[in-house]
Amino acid sequence: MGTMRFRLPGRPDAPPSAGAAAATERPRTTRSGTGSGTGSGTGSGTGSVTGPAPDLSGEGGRGDPRAADHEATVAPTPGWERGRRAMSAFSTLAVASAQLLLISAALVVVFWVLGRLWVILLPIVLGLLFATVLWPPTRFLRKHRWPPALAAAVVLLAFLGLIGGLIAAIAPQVADQVTDLADQATSGLEQIQQWLQGPPFNIDQEQIGQYVDQAIDSVQSNASNIAGYAATGASAVGNGLLNLVLALLLAFFFIKDGPRWVPWLTAQTGPKAAPHVAALSQKTWSTLSEFIKQQAFVGFIDALFIGIGLWIFDVPLVIPLAVLTFFGAFIPIIGAFVAGAFAVLIALVDEGPYVALAIFGVVLLVQQIEGNVLQPIIQGRGFNLHAAVVILAVTAGSSLFGIVGAFLGVPVAALIAVVYRYTRDAFDGRHPEVADDGTQTRVSGDDDGAVLTREQAPGTAGG
């Protein structure tokens, strides 16, 4: 059998020399220092040990007349456990990747199902939000021995009456000034035309007429598209009104029969899960209530400061615009934009371009402070979320589901945080189902129905 040879990459092959075979029989110096030189085997380090040379017949060996072009590596010698540990790490990574893929696929399916059922889910969500506002007065009436149906009906009718009365109070002010505003708008357009005819634009009457004719021709050429957009908008408005009516009807049933929901749900789960179901239901309900309170507070701040700005610059319709701003706060992005645009338009028509620019600055400043500073701080404290998380939740919601997503992004993120913290505390053995007073919910009853009671939790004072 011939002698095995090793060749470094990049070195041309060469026939074995006569001294190559003798290299295996000669002693070799093993260096322990950082010696240099390849032929003599004497190191330049601190010491050396002489022993039999290994059987090397490749390039760089003792018998190779060519000098070796490599030195010992500084990497440690691989251990016998490296391969086994690498395979174990790869197996763990593969299992984790498979789990991540399964979870991602499940989330995709869940979102797809929610998207298909969104027509049904949206009125339910809006009804729950209405119920958070209407439940406190309903609970007050029920504590004073009002029948549940009567208390719910009275509160709902009072709510609708309040909204209708507010509209009735604002409508006369708008009707009284709409004619003057229309005349001022016509005068404002004439002033803009005269301004364009003067320096520095120097546009004569004929050119303005040509521009107007071009605009009319453009509108006429796109009449079908505009009609389609109008039909789509009208359909959206109709769907919105239908969802609003359904949400109000569902809110009535929620505040009428809502106290039966948690006992029924706990009765379906079992005695061990009942405290957890009741505690999570209470926490999620409190989160939704907190969201409505905070949105109302933010809307009040917007309406107050924008109304003060309108009053300072003597812009008409201060109260209607302030009310519009307040309700616009409950519809992120579009609500603020529409309310601000109305304020600037009325200021332009009534007071001129300089006051309109000032009102635009006031609206922009208030909305920037509210959207980027006030709202994240308030919602972050109320929901125990960081301000950056609030901003990201609004951004993600608006990107995925538009205006409704921007409106529901923060409460959804807060609900996810509530479930996560509850699960984390349960895994850590902290008993999140136990209230601050040391009591927990227990389901009891018989075949006629289940009820919830409070009892002292085991391991607490008195338990």
TrEMBL record:
Residues 34-48 have a biased composition (Gly residues). Residues 1-79, 431-463 are annotated as: Disordered. It is a multi-pass membrane protein. This is Predicted PurR-regulated permease PerM. GO terms for cellular component: plasma membrane. InterPro entries: AI-2E-like. The keyword Membrane applies. The chain crosses the membrane at residues 90-112, 118-137, 149-171, 226-255, 296-313, 319-345, 352-369, 389-420. Signal peptide: none annotated. Belongs to the autoinducer-2 exporter (AI-2E) (TC 2.A.86) family. Residues 61-72 have a biased composition (Basic and acidic residues). It comes from Geodermatophilus obscurus. It is found in: Cell membrane. Keywords: Cell membrane, Membrane, Transmembrane, Transmembrane helix, Transport. Pfam families: AI-2E_transport (PF01594). GO terms for biological process: transmembrane transport.
